[in-house]
Amino acid sequence: MLVLGIESSCDETAAAVVDGSRPAGERILSNIVFSQWESVRKYGGVVPEVAARAHVEKIDQVVDRALDEAGVPIDALDGIAATAGPGLIGGVIVGVSYAKALAMGADKPFMALNHLEGHALTPRLVASIEFPFLLLLVSGGHCQTLLVEGVGKYRRLGTTIDDAIGEAFDKTAKLMELGQPGGPAVEALAAQGDPRAVPLPVPFKGRPGLDFSFSGLKTAVRRAVQGDAGYSPEDIAASFQRVAFESLIDRTRRAAEAVALAVDTPLQALVVAGGVAANRALSRQLTSLGEELGLPVVVPPAALCTDNGAMMAWAGVERLRAGNAEDQLAFAPRPRWPLDPDAPKSTGAGAAKA
Ligand code: KG4
Ligand code: ZN
């Protein structure tokens, strides 16, 4: 079961070959990621047109290298999967068009997949976990809890009503002039500071419902950075990270409790995905939460938490296995594409019962 996966929905041009017939831990035959941070840094953030052009320039090489490194000729593939949304539409179009052309030329099935589905299924790429599991998806564009009941069966429990948590890390880094992407820089600085030095509010802690919010915290961080209190950057970073994660853990605990009341099959695991999952302080706190809830915790390796091709290839494997992968050559890329289209915009306490 060999699938080529292509990812181009933000600022990484990525491709990978995954062999679904191997045991967890040995499935990734290649995983090539070209990151545009160098080329976008001079603009101070992702400019969609610049990103799209960079994808066009790189995709050929990235896919060739993925196939070469895996030692897999196109003819040997069982399918080609690409992120078809949500994301910056210029980049998504590049990846989808390229994948469709390859698939047509080689007469292979093409799978148009949701980027969030790639993140959601990644824990099963690296560990044997059964459904259902609770997913905390934390990235630059998303901050959600999802109940994953099977391939293609996702129920959103809580979501952010304003900023995503990765965005909060990136904005904090920008305020403190730490460079982008902000997450790793804030994490490194936070390790040297006092997490209780700066009084910051814990967003939504103890509040009913399952949603998240980070815009108030962003404002409080701006005041701490620009005010006269003279806080050190290390203390601001540490305090920001502490309250941001306290909020995540509080909301995740509530989501697990809500699910336990609402589903027949007990949760099998607590898993985390998305770029912010690369943060070691977060994975430590999730591990403790898992112990408290009596659930195994799966945190994929950092390289599989941030955007990559292997997660899309693996989602393709899961789709093929589930017999849920009809050829999608006619699929049009989507800039917006919720994983759970039935979820209300902001879900609140009733979500798990819906
Ligand atoms: O999943 P991802 O690669 O891209 C999408 O947003 O889909 O996530 C990128 C986000 C950025 O906001 C980045 O700052 C954050 O993940 N991130 C981190 C860490 N590494 C990456 N946030 C906190 N701590 C980290 N170590
Ligand atoms: Zn992502």
Explained architecture:
Helix content is 43%, strand content 17%. With 354 residues, the protein is an alpha/beta fold. The protein folds into two domains: 2-123 and 307-321, Nucleotidyltransferase, domain 5 (2-Layer Sandwich); 131-295, Nucleotidyltransferase, domain 5 (2-Layer Sandwich), CATH 3.30.420.40. The chain has a five-stranded mixed β-sheet with strand order 3-2-1-4-5, with helices on both faces. A five-stranded mixed β-sheet has the order 8-7-6-9-10, with helices on both faces. Strand 6 and strand 7 (143-150) form a beta hairpin. Helix 2 packs parallel to helix 3 (89-106) and helix 8 packs parallel to helix 9 (280-293). The radius of gyration is 20 Å and the shape is globular. It binds 5'-O-[(R)-(carboxyoxy)(hydroxy)phosphoryl]adenosine (KG4) and zinc ion. 5'-O-[(R)-(carboxyoxy)(hydroxy)phosphoryl]adenosine binds at residues 10, 139-141, 166, 169-170, 181-184, 187, 274-276, 278-279, 306-307.
Uncertain stretches:
347-354
- What overall geometry do the principal axes of the alpha carbons give? globular
Average per-residue pLDDT, rounded, comes to: 92
Largest sheet at a glance? 5 strands, mixed
- The CATH class of the largest domain turns out to be Alpha Beta
Gyration radius, rounded? 20 Å
The CA-CA distance between the termini, in Å, is: 36 Å
Say which molecules are bound, naming each kind only once. Answer: 5'-O-[(R)-(carboxyoxy)(hydroxy)phosphoryl]adenosine, zinc ion
Would you identify the CATH architecture of the largest domain? 2-Layer Sandwich
Estimated share of beta-strand residues: 15-25%
Number of helices: 11
As laid out across the biggest beta sheet, the strand order is 3-2-1-4-5
The helix-and-strand class reads alpha/beta
What is the tally of beta strands? 10
Secondary-structure element series: EEEHHEHEHEEEHHHHEHEHH
CATH fold-level name of the largest domain? Nucleotidyltransferase, domain 5
Which range best describes the helical content: under 10%, 10-25%, 25-40%, 40-55%, 55-70% or over 70%?
40-55%
